[in-house]
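Worked example 3 (structure in, sequence out).
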């Protein structure tokens, strides 16, 4: 699966602010809520979850 420019932008946002990367991929929903909680608990778990959500499709 090749990267599109939007995937690269989502990854950049996932590293800077993980919930924003998830929001751009899925919109409001359960994944966003999980990512917000993980980011509050620690920045690194939020990044891992954001990358998982972006590459899941």
């Amino acid at each position: 699966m090749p990267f599109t420019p939007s995937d690269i932008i989502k990854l950049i946002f996932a590293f800077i602010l993980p919930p924003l990367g998830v929001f751009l991929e899925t919109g409001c929903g359960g994944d966003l809520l999980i990512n917000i909680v993980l980011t509050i608990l620690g920045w690194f778990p939020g990044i891992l979850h954001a990358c998982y959500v972006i590459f899941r499709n």
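Notes: The chain has four helices and no strands. Residues 12-56 form one domain.
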